[in-house]
Amino acid sequence: MQVEKLCSPAIWAEGPVWLPQYDAVVFSDVKANRMYCWQRNGELSIWRHHANYANGNARDSQGRVVSCEHGRRAISRTEADGSVSVLIDKVEGKRFNSPNDLAIRSDGTIWFTDPPYGIVNDQEGYLAPSQVIGCYLYCYDPNNGQLSIAASDLQRPNGLAFSPDENLLYVADMSVVDFPTLGRHQLRVYRVEGQELSPGQFFADVTPGFPDGFCVHTNGDIYCSCADGVIIFDAHGARKGKIPIPEMVSNCTFGGPDNNELYITANTSLYRVILR
What backbone torsions phi and psi does residue 4 show, to the nearest 5 degrees? Predict the structure, then answer.
């Protein structure tokens, strides 16, 4: 597989999302507090100058971009006219830590992780004390405003993605960053039970480095970030291969007209691999 470097405009590129209506990928530059848009014709533009330290992004069923914002410690949505509204920023009156990544189920529910990385310094958000005890995985239903804690057994939850049938939710735990001897560098898997999850189970260790963001192919394979590339696991957790990338990978998503293009954010750059 040939790896193409498409552009290198970022300090820390993250959260790629494919927008078919623009034939483009939108991605965050968390530390520069902006978002970029790369179109398949090669044109690069700033999608948002001030992005409230947005990190993970996803597209909903109406083509709108839903984002995790470290700055406002919130989940926001960009409407078709470009306006941005906050969907939710508190749990029982307490501010989230810093929503990091999200996945949207076909029923419209938004599942997101809430580690503390946006409040531990001023580089990816604003230094602030945590108002909640723990780092949880939440499920939010924008149709009725219902919020629930879907999982509480993760130390530092980060990337997440559903299986093709949406019966399983895979979640990255990268707590080894904060706890070098006791932390995890693994993907965990949960069975989806309405707006809650079954107890999590180990799925796969991710090395070198740790898992950040990832995506799931329609065939069930998981394409997961690591320190020097993208590791491919099958639906049983067996390692199938690896796509080497010359920078530390943060996240990836599928896109393109046939959904066979893997877009990868890594350090300063956006890469593409066309899958045959």
Answer: -110, 130
CA distance 232 to 181: 26
> CA-CA distance, 58 to 54, in Å (whole number)?
11
Q: What is the pTM of this model?
A: 0.96
Alpha carbons 93 and 36: distance in angstroms, whole number = 33
What digits encode the pLDDT tens for the residues 167-188?
999 999 999 888 998 889 999 9
Q: Is the pLDDT of residue 229 over 90?
A: yes
The helix/strand/coil state of 177 is helix
- Percent helix / strand / coil, the chain, rounded to 5: 0, 50, 50
**Which pair of structure tokens corresponds to residue 37?**
């848009």
Token representation of residue 114: 């809430």
Output the six-digit token pair for 225: 């970030």
- In the predicted structure, residue 215 carries a pLDDT above the cut 90: yes
Mean pLDDT confidence for 11-33 = 98
66 with 80: CB under 8 angstroms?
Answer: no
Two tokens at 189? 């898997």
**What tokens were used for 159?**
């990337």
CA atoms within 13 A on the CB side of 222: 32
Q: Are 172 and 189 in contact (CB under 8 A)?
A: no
| Contact status, residue 85 vs residue 130, Cβ threshold 8 Å | no
